[in-house]
Amino acid sequence: MDPILQIQHLTKRYPGVTALNDVSFDIERGSVHCLLGENGAGKSTLIKILTGAQTRSGGTILMNGAPIDASSTKEARELGISTLFQELNVVDQLTVEENLSLGMEPMKFGFFTKNDGMQRMVETLKRMEPTIDPKQLVSKLSVAKKQMVEIVKAVETKAEIIIMDEPTAALSEGEVKRLFDVISQLKQNEVTVIYISHRLEEVFEIGDDVTVLRDGRHIDTKKVVDVESREELIKMILGKTVVEKYKPRTIDRDEPCIEARNIANEKLKDVSFDIYKGEIVGFYGLIGSGKTELANVLFGIDRFEGGLKINGREADYESASGAVEKGITLAPEERRTQGLFTMLSIRKNIVSMNMKKISKNGIINATAIRKVSGEYVQKLNVVTDTDEKEVGFLSGGNQQKVVFAKCLNSEADIFLLDEPTRGVDVGAKEEIHNIIKQLADEGRTCIVFSSELPEVLSCCDRICLMHEGKLKMIMDNAPDIDSDRIIHIVAGGEA
Predict the structure, then answer these.
(1) Domain stops at, among 208, 238, 268
(2) 96-116: b (≥16 Cβ within 10 Å) or e
(3) Does the global pTM surpass 0.85?
(4) Domain annotation covers residue 414
(5) Are residues 211 and 298 in the same domain?
(6) For the CA atoms of the chain, what is the radius of gyration?
């Protein structure tokens, strides 16, 4: 065993909270070390200490046998630790090439110049994602391609340790494969990858070792080959076994609340379907299948040709505000940039979609705000010491619960949920799925747009399979549903 990193009795205390409690484990050189745990388990705190973003309260970190104590992310990079963060860290107004060199720009006589390092980054980008033009603005890229730019930048820092925080959350199947090929190459070059993911199947595919944290404590570190099953990992993470399977529900399908006929635009091609009150319908497909574009059509964001009726009436709204007035709400794919005001409090975010509820004659009632916010924080089990905390400081799962609270407070009848559990842990995922089921039991309609097959299989009554903008097939869910056939269809196979 040749440990590149030794974490010994690491502790981090905040006022009233111990985020890390005497955590100790080793990470082997040239390995993929998976770090698992629920949101709030201590993963982010550990990474922030390793990268110099936060100071420790106690303990020791050894790298190559020598103590390290980075006081900034720049110092951590100089020590050989690079990080690919879950939330995108790109500048939309700059080109891809400029983003790759951001913070590392070579200069000569006060002017920016190009060097061999930049050329290597461009070549790596072409290898990983040849469709990205280095000269184009990042704002023109999809979320998946923006993430790929970040991956290339992290890979090409020549670090000894690369921390990847949910790197595949917004990537297609092909992009994930290319990333895994790059990780394999990094291992051959004795680069160590600390890999954080809530997609447990990825642990078995690329992981060498796995460490589980729970409530700030080190639960166990094991060789992946010694882990018997996904259920064993879940039990380690939660302290209990969770097996979420679809339970058939009785749906009254007399009158549809949504009727779509031949919906088409630049991305969608002749999409038709009916959805009924109290139903949970999943639109499943790979990245780029048209799921998000369909959600945007239903929410009034994207224009389209074809027919669309909501509760028997023509959908004449042409904006998100118009959709909200019709009783439709959207939990978007990108919660931080599209679904939340991250610099505002939990309280202000929750009430933001229904100002009429907390105001009268144009005057906001502070007591009503506190009452509404408190109800939803309790109902959705948002983990926080106060609802006055900025949303940006919450874990991913709790941020998603605030998005749901906003949508619930809008008093909508139709919920459009685009990747509702992307980047959240298995515990928060189970809670969010239970919220969706509860909404349906109350007679609300929930439409889940997801690129995770286990998600739609666990909670959706019907599953709509999409590929390249087309609705290939609609099938009823059942405990014995053929998942291999579903994957075949969404990958372009015959229905």
Answers:
(1) 238
(2) bbbbbbeeeeeeeeeeeeeee
(3) no
(4) yes
(5) no
(6) 23
